[in-house]
Amino acid sequence: MKSKIGLWMVIALGLMAAGMGTTGRGPGEIPIPSKDFSATIVDRQNIATHVTQISFNGQATLQGARGEGSLIIPFDRIKTISFSEANTQKRRARITFKDAGESVDVVVDGQLKVYGKSRFGAFEITMKNIQRIDFTETP
């Protein structure tokens, strides 16, 4: 009886360990957002990379702090995101909207991952290394 319990414990621990430490993506794979958006990402070295299927941690929204509150802005409203204050923890971002050219400033997590597909392959960069993101119309 004890050997059966021990065997089940080993199997259970093995299954739990197999599920740890994986993102569910293989090499070169990116999270696919629910809607396809295209953008040109300009990094702090002024290198521009055009991507499709852009996402922030797999989401097609930008979340940032505004004062004591939080804004969640869908990509379909955003024209440009410009960053200032290069800091590894927090980045000040100015979001310019497509409609009426209005803008709003928010603070975003500098460690946030940005993903996309470029013509060269999968693209990944953290917010702290981005200077600007220009969203383009997807046909």
From TrEMBL:
Keywords in alphabetical order: Signal
Signal keyword on record: yes
Signal peptide range in chain numbering: 1-17
Signal among keywords: yes
Protein's name according to its UniProt entry: Auto-transporter adhesin head GIN domain-containing protein
Species name: Tectimicrobiota bacterium
Organism lineage: Bacteria, Pseudomonadati, Nitrospinota/Tectimicrobiota group, Candidatus Tectimicrobiota
